[in-house]
Structure formats: structure tokens, C-alpha cells
Amino acid sequence: RQLEHDLLRAVHDDEFELAYQPIVRLADGAVVGVEALLRWRHRTRGLLEPGAFLAGAERSPAVEELWRWVLRTACAQAAAWRERVPDLSVTVNLSAAHVMARGASDDVRAALAAAALDPAALVLDVPADLLGEDPDLLTARLRTLRATGARILLDDFATLDPARGGVLVNHSLAPLRQLPVDGVKLDRTLVGEIDGPEGVDALAAVRVLCELGAALDLGVVAEGVERTEQVVLLTEAGCAVAQGVLLGVPRSVAELGPELGAGE
Ligand code: G
Ligand code: G
Ligand code: NA
């Protein structure tokens, strides 16, 4: 209850902001997109990351209000940046609850219209955990979301679970053939291992996922790239697009803006 009230107040008091992390084409280092990441500049508790407040707050009216703010803000910012970087895409994260909620696509449509943003410029990251939902219902929900013209990527795909001896969770691309999605984002737990001691298996998994992705016409984006060696290995494996602290940390509009398009 208290959190609900705090969230609503903070939306109205403008305490939220978005940090944008570059998404980079590995072949030439060009920034092809940005991922919007929510931050709460709390009056007394300082700067909070989503883990600190989103977990206990799924699907309340306040969270839905916050999510509409994220969508509107990210779409408007992308429209502004695209005047200098015409092909830039913007990624917004959706919780599983939002994906399954009726009405989510109306919010997406409203944000696109308000910003006059080309729907093809919007990417919706949805949790790969959704693969555990009823397939027919999930398909229906994703189809409705995708009818907005936005692209849909399954986030945190192929997670390495150390508690289960490093097994890959949700790592099969086969079910994706039936789902209306445009690609996957390889989880940083997997990407983090490709240049490590167990790197051969992790790298083999990445290679297979990239090959399958190409065959099934699914995009594959690597997350959590922290070292140059990973860029080399990902490129060899056929992964063309990635993000991570090596390629760019999440930054404010004021910090990132001047760099976008500066290389032209
Ligand atoms: O930078 P990082 O700490 O922001 O993000 C932590 C987690 O919070 C990530 O898994 C990310 O997907 C999620 N996240 C970040 N911003 C948003 C948002 O606007 N909405 C939702 N639902 N999740 C977000
Ligand atoms: O993909 P997801 O939405 O789960 O990822 C967003 C989260 O990842 C944010 O918390 C962001 O700060 C974090 N992040 C971004 N780049 C890196 C990286 O290179 N390494 C790690 N460990 N985390 C990263
Ligand atoms: Na994401």
C-alpha cells in the first residue's frame, strides 16, 4: 500500500528518469538503438534501480501509471534523437504481468501516437519466463502487442543457472517459431562465460543459437558484454548486435545525447 502511494506520488512529482544504454552493431561499433532503463531519484533514499522497487509492485494501478510514463518518455526521446540518427530504435522493458494484461497494446499505441514515432522504431523486451505461460494465451497477447508495429524480443533468453550446474534455461529456439516474436536477447550469464574456463560450451551454445536465429529469421542480441574478447567471439559466432558496459553504460539523456550521431 505504502509503495503504491509512493510510486504514484513520485510519478506526479517527476522523480523517475530513464537511463539509456547503447545497443551496438559489432561490425562497425555504430549505435543502432538504446534500451531505456528506469531509475527513481527518490527524495530521501537516493537513486534507486528497478530491482529495489519493481519487484513488490507488479500490476498495481500505480505500476501501470509508471509504465505508461516509461513508454511515453522513451518514445518521445527516441523521436527526438531520430531527427539526428534516423534508424535509431528504442527498447522498453515490459514485465510479464504487463504482457499478459489486456490493454497493454493500447498503452503502446497511445505512446507511439503521442510521440509520432515510427512503430518499427520501438522494441519491446519481454521476459523469457513468459514461455511458461499457456501458449495460446501468450500467443494471443504477443500478437496483439505486435500488431502495434513494435518488435518483440524475448529478454534474458538462455540463462545459465549456476544452481543447476550451469544448465541453460529456456534455451530452445524451436518453440519460438510458433510465437509472434522477432528475436531473443542472450542473457549476460551465458555471454559472461564464453571467454571463461568453461567457455567452449557456452560459446558453442551461442553459436548454435545464432545459426538457428538466422535460419528462423530471429534476431539475436547479446547482453552483458564486458570484455573485448567477448566481442571477438560473438562476432565469430555470428552475433551482430550487442550491449554491455564495454559498449556503453546506461546514461542520462544529457550524457548520451551529444554522442549519438556524432560519428557522421
Ligand atoms: O539497470 P538495471 O538495474 O536497470 O535493471 C534491472 C532490471 O530492471 C532489468 O532486468 C530490467 O529489465 C528491469 N527494468 C529496467 N527498466 C524497466 C522498466 O521500465 N520496466 C520494467 N518492467 N522493467 C525494467
Ligand atoms: O536485460 P535487462 O533488461 O535484464 O538488463 C538491464 C540490466 O543490465 C540493468 O541492470 C543494467 O544496468 C545491466 N547491465 C547493462 N550492461 C551490463 C553489463 O555489461 N554487465 C552487467 N553485469 N550488467 C549490465
Ligand atoms: Na531488457
From TrEMBL:
Residues 1-264 form the EAL domain. Transmembrane segments: none annotated. It comes from the Bacteria. This is Diguanylate cyclase (GGDEF)-like protein. It comes from Kineococcus aurantiacus. The chain holds residues 500 to 763 of 839 of the full protein.
